[in-house]
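We now fix the convention by which a protein and its fold are recorded. These numbers are not coordinates but entries in a learned vocabulary of local backbone shapes. A record is reproduced here so that you can trace the correspondence yourselves:
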Amino acid sequence: MALYSTRPAAALVEDLVTANLILAGQGVLDAFGHVSARNDAAADRFLLARNMAPGQVRPEDILQFALDGTPLDAGDRRVYLERFIHGAIYRARPDVMAVVHSHSPAVLPFTVSRSARLQPICHMSGFLGAGAPLFEIRTAAGDGSDLLVRDDRLGRALADSLGSASFVLMRGHGSTTVAPSLKLAVYRAVYAEVNARVQAQAMQLGDPEYLTPKEAEAAMASTEGQVERPWALWKAQAQS
């Protein structure tokens, strides 16, 4: 009788390493932030690097976690404090196969503006749909937190704010991106940053015209079907 294996495919581990390098190279992650993938051999586990700068991640740094954030093979290696972001979303959203949490600089102003909402302004960011929801941590943690999602309770609150969307803003903190594949999660995280930068520029010109929800849906279907193209380019750049 064959034993049940929870060992992820080597290709998934390699892609997760590449995702870390790409997101660091594209300026979405710096010394902080993280990207995870649901374990393709065990849906109740996810893969995430140990606590380190994403641009330095290697295959041996990838660890397994239970969906409540418990590290399963870390040993004495430190783990990310905000791993609960990933586990709670995987638990709430069976369709999600990858999660990116970042503090990308163009997105951050949209987490605190009381008048500007991050919305899809070009066809490359149709995944933003009708506009990004906002996670207000004060609702769950009061007005004295450090804004970090440091336990499963706050992870669940973030997942609730995300709902069925692909992207959620986190007030004064950053954002979280989800997707049905690792490559798409990377694509969306990169183009959320691009959209935020372009939207801010358009707002300076005045009265931007945003995509309608139907345009966003059609654009997402068109552009995301070609995710291998940017992935190949960014991978080559990250490995050069």
Notes: The chain is about 40% helix and 15% strand.
